[in-house]
Amino acid sequence: MKISARAQSIQESPIRKLTALANAAKKRGTTVYYLNIGQPDIHTPAVFLQKIIAYGEKVLSYGPSDGLEALKEAMAKYFAFFNITLEHKNIVIATGGSEAISFAFNAVADPGDEIIIPEPFYTNYNGYASLCNVKIVPVTTRAEDGFHLPDMSEFEKKVGPRTRAILLCSPNNPTGTVYSAEELKAIGAFAKKHDLFLIADEVYKEFTYDGKTHFSVLQLLGLEDRVIVVDSISKRYSACGARIGAVISRNEEVMKGIAKFAQARLCPPTLEQVGAVGAYELPHDYFKEVMAEYQKRRDILFSILTSHPGIILQKPEGAFYIMAKLPIRDGETFARWLLNEFNEKNETVMIAPGEGFYSTPGRGKDEVRLAYVIEIPKLERAARLLLKALDRFKG
Amino acid sequence: MKISARAQSIQESPIRKLTALANAAKKRGTTVYYLNIGQPDIHTPAVFLQKIIAYGEKVLSYGPSDGLEALKEAMAKYFAFFNITLEHKNIVIATGGSEAISFAFNAVADPGDEIIIPEPFYTNYNGYASLCNVKIVPVTTRAEDGFHLPDMSEFEKKVGPRTRAILLCSPNNPTGTVYSAEELKAIGAFAKKHDLFLIADEVYKEFTYDGKTHFSVLQLLGLEDRVIVVDSISKRYSACGARIGAVISRNEEVMKGIAKFAQARLCPPTLEQVGAVGAYELPHDYFKEVMAEYQKRRDILFSILTSHPGIILQKPEGAFYIMAKLPIRDGETFARWLLNEFNEKNETVMIAPGEGFYSTPGRGKDEVRLAYVIEIPKLERAARLLLKALDRFKG
């Protein structure tokens, strides 16, 4: 009686696996600044809970498997603001972006099939690859290039008979990179050439800075039937705990398959969908203040980090992460040391080691991901602590 | 560019696939009585929403991957009432019983592995088997025997080198059968003999009638490390839309694997967990009235159905389903005809065709599942409509 190979092999979240050490540090009385996790401190819009309070049903019953019509309607209106026209049948509401990823993987790939993903990438793609028995084939991007996409020839090298899809994330977690329309068009042409699906994780679509705007793969012409978008309200409305996301595609066969996956788990959480409708109905102005705040945070974190000559990074263009190359040998040893030993006036920092964001063995060992989701005075203090720690760390 | 084999092959829910026909009937002005779906009409306890309203956090943030401590605590107390001692580490909160099934399948089986399940069984096991690429090996139970377990020799025949687990559901969906302690002990010994996991879906544990009590596989001695229980609040507190369930096991390796699956999807819905804590804190008396109501409904449905000489069924002992063998050739044709053509004073009935609950081809074609989750006058009317329809139906 053995547990499955997938249960044995699935990666522990590099973002969450050091949580026990952080808790121990807190117990010792040390203040821990959390730069490891993308949990925004922005308040969830009050309308979210208000809508739920106004929920008038006596029975909290199953909703439709593919999500509440009202939520699809609200989403379609929201996307129309970005000149993206969606019909209800193009949307299946998922239990978080996480489930949307799992739906997309399962819809395009069978066990042993391959999906090409630029690395570093969001670690939970690894989790779902293990669960779905899909193989991730990485194309490495570099800190020196701001993690922008390499030449298409690098992608060409990775295509094989089992390749089913390319997965992009833009604005990118963990790098903050926003791919240009040109980069996406090139990838789109590549997907067409090799007859692949193009999956795009666009859950950070609103989070672009310096006046840059996000170009969605849903806007790529002639690729309508290849594109599958992973969406979520977690970051958009600072509602990570709601677990409301969506899969969006105009490929009817894909959506039919995903609708059946959705039936297997009955429905997404009803009350949180009700709350999400309220959030989607907010005027678009809502984002202005939020974006201004994040841009300020990025600028502060970036300027403190670049004051250290040993740190390599480009200014991130979106999301709320920085992937930085540090003058260290092993990010995990450093991260553990920060929680176990480092202490500056009873304070320390928690970071996410970079290696877990790579699939090529050994890559990213000298990198860490930092999330700028805490308020500015704390962020500033955390960044300065990190620099002090770097100077003190022997590794 | 093709969708995956699993997306093509996954079964459409036999409970939900006729929904479009029901909607069309409603549009024509026909009243449809829904006996197809296990959506109780019992009010969700008011404390569920009250707890959510009292949720004081400004940010709806990620919770722990394995669930809120407060919910684990409330669950452990609840199980203690049944003399089942659970530690927090024995529980991972899941997004509905559905996710709990998927976690259990993925923890014990890899693609190509087999799980033995008595049929008819809850159709969504099929969905997850497709998604996880696990093969369901059925052991047929019969309406004539009240769907109780056949002799162990029937199970022996189904064990092969890829068999990893047996899955039981008691009280059973779709049959209403409650396995006796003796049946479960026999299956437990069988699991031990063949070194298999024993997965038990016990989401209907409270729903037993005529003074019968439910025996949990968690009470089987000497099987602590083999047993994995799928649990949910959906039926317990009439909160199907909440999507709060749990996996329970004392096998540490299993729970470690499942904790990593849980990390991959970040966390279960936060607000619905907060509500669930409130429900679990209700005094146990809460169930008395609910059970009395269900028992009355069962009695009425059973007595009307048995008044028809062509219907074969035993009195179900639990849950809120009846699996009845009807004098028809094909349950799906009958179910469609009910929605498309049958009309008695502008009323009709929706039922779940039996075939989808079987995995042996051709089995269950003359059976249907009926859920008694609507109030008594409606249930009575629906049952009488069904008898009228049977007499009128040519097939």
Give an overview of the whole structure:
Chain A is an alpha/beta fold. Chain A folds into 2 domains: 5-43 and 286-392, Aspartate Aminotransferase, domain 1 (Alpha-Beta Complex); 46-280, Type I PLP-dependent aspartate aminotransferase-like (Major domain) (Aspartate Aminotransferase, domain 2, 3-Layer(aba) Sandwich), CATH 3.40.640.10. Helix content of chain A is 37%, strand content 15%. Chain A contains 13 helices and 12 strands. In chain A, the strands form 3 sheets. A 7-stranded mixed sheet of chain A has the order 2-8-7-6-5-3-4, sandwiched between helices. In chain A, strands 9-12-11 form a 3-stranded antiparallel sheet. In chain A, strand 5 (163-169), helix 8 (181-193) and strand 6 form a beta-alpha-beta unit. In chain A, helix 5 (96-108) crosses helix 6 (124-132) and helix 11 (286-306) runs parallel beside helix 13. The longest helix of chain A has 21 residues, at 286-306. Chain A is globular and about 55 Å long. The N and C termini of chain A lie far apart (42 Å). The model of chain A has no long low-confidence stretch (mean pLDDT 95). At the A-B interface, helix 1, helix 3, helix 5, helix 6 and helix 9 of A face helix 1, helix 3, helix 5, helix 6 and helix 9 of B.
SSE layout:
2 copies of one chain form a homodimer.
Chain A: H1 5-9, H2 19-27, E1 31-34, H3 46-53, H4 69-80, E2 91-94, H5 96-108, E3 114-119, H6 124-132, E4 135-140, H7 152-156, E5 163-169, H8 181-193, E6 197-201, E7 227-232, E8 245-249, H9 252-264, H10 270-280, H11 286-306, E9 321-325, H12 331-340, E10 347-350, E11 352-353, E12 367-371, H13 376-392
Parallel strand pairs in A: 1-10, 3-4, 3-5, 5-6, 6-7
Antiparallel strand pairs in A: 2-8, 7-8, 9-12, 11-12
Helix pairs in contact in A: 3-10, 4-10, 5-6, 5-9, 11-13
